[in-house]
Amino acid sequence: MATPHPLTTTVSGADVRVRFCPSPTGLPHVGMVRTALYNWAYARHNGGKMVFRIEDTDAARDSEESFRQLVDALTWLEIDWDEGVEVGGPHAPYRQSERHDIYREVIDKLLASGALYESYSTAEEIDARNEANGRAKQLGYDNFDRDLTDEQKQAFRAEGRQPALRLRVPDEDLTYVDLIRGEVTFPAGSFPDFVVVRPNGVPLYTFVNPVDDALMGITHVLRGEDLMPSTARQLSLYAALIDAGVTTFVPRFAHMPLVLGETGTKKLSKRDPQADLFLHRERGFIHEGLLNYLALLGWSIGPDRDVFSLDEFIAAFDIENVNPNPARFDQKKAESINGDHIRMLDVKDFAERTVPYLAAAGLFDEPTHEQLVLAFRAAPLVQERVQLLGDVPGMVGFLFRDEVSYDEDALKGLPANAADVLDACVAALEPVDDFTPESIQDALSTALVENLELKPRVAYGPPRVAITGRRVSPPLFESMELLGKEESLRRLRGLSAFLAR
């Protein structure tokens, strides 16, 4: 039975080093963010370091715009890093595209140690040999070039061929202990010698990724389950890097569960709305709420508890407690948890966070002092009622508009005597000098509940629609106070006139 490499690291605490190394292609998605979150939390829990580097060797797909979006995403989420792009560190540069000279030195060491060898076989030649030898085509490369003589190599070069470089894979079982999944063994012969450097001299991702980990002293590789099959190749390369003196240890690996879509039947696609990080921000998730929910996609702080602070998460998180089973993204649960975090905010903090959403909804461009005061006074009225910051403009928009737009369902829900109710409201409020929620409620309660003998649910429907245009709104009496007496009376008369048409 195979045993893990004897030089597998055993470090803990402040010596822990993890990395987040995305490719700058497309928009950041929640699966990527969960990977960053778990790495960040593991580093912070242990008092270790997180490295943020960029895998940008695919010039056709990588873009500076995507890189800036990655930085924007981590900055908004307040996931910080100790070394890497933007902040520097002892292992710079942190972009693969800027590390070619470093890779060349490592390649030369592995060639000298015999770990790498020149391979001239074409895909057609490999297929033909497999067919001739009765070997399944899908098995791929047959290790044919392992022991080419110098004469054979020279003959191939004379034909104009340039060699790829392949890693000489150990002819033995490879075993490691996954921090999430336990012991995993890759049987000898389950994969062939693989290309690490193209014939044009450019190293492949399968080479540069583990090499960067080795050179940067990464002790724990925490990544997605979909990358688990490549671990065998990484273990093979690490053994070669140790033999060549490039590093002294093999890192620990942990493979996080897949994130499934709402149906729970397939992996969350980058094209799914739930995967779009910036769409969540645009709709009004706050970073505390979104990170809390993403933390639950594979991990739990305890039974029957879903809401916790980031500090509590860091204190409790251990990668070994992550569940290996796939996690389903539940939009409703995510929004509910976000609402819980909104209610945990200081009211001033909440109010400040609503301002960009009010502006995006067209309620103002550059807010005036009066508009900011109004926004801050309105915030406590809705903080307990919203799950997303994007819900706020719809609830308080009536405060910033001169004309009320009546929702169709709100009009349909009005009683037949709505105009009489509104006229009674006007008559009751005109004499009120101290226009506070308490005095407004006293006046309306007397006029509508006592005098007209209406149930409160019926009584306050017409003035609510008159003031806000909506059937559901912030507290009515506080809303009228914010609008002021004259504007409130104007709106009450306005709906009465509208109904009389």
Automatic annotation (TrEMBL):
GO molecular function: glutamate-tRNA ligase activity
Key word Mitochondrion present: no
Entry EC no(s): 6.1.1.17
Class of enzymatic activity (EC top level): ligase
Domain of life: Bacteria
Ranges spanned by the short sequence motif 'KMSKS' region, renumbered to the chain: 267-271
Keywords from the named record: Aminoacyl-tRNA synthetase, ATP-binding, Cytoplasm, Ligase, Nucleotide-binding, Protein biosynthesis
Domain Glutamyl/glutaminyl-tRNA synthetase class Ib catalytic: 16-333
Reaction catalyzed: tRNA(Glu) + L-glutamate + ATP = L-glutamyl-tRNA(Glu) + AMP + diphosphate
Residues involved in ATP binding: K270
Subcellular localization: Cytoplasm
Domain Aminoacyl-tRNA synthetase class I anticodon-binding as annotated: residue spans: 350-493
Subunit details: Monomer.
Family designation: Belongs to the class-I aminoacyl-tRNA synthetase family. Glutamate--tRNA ligase type 1 subfamily.
PANTHER family: GLUTAMATE--TRNA LIGASE, GLUTAMATE--TRNA LIGASE, MITOCHONDRIAL-RELATED
Function: Catalyzes the attachment of glutamate to tRNA(Glu) in a two-step reaction: glutamate is first activated by ATP to form Glu-AMP and then transferred to the acceptor end of tRNA(Glu).
Protein name: Glutamate--tRNA ligase
Organism: Microbacterium algeriense
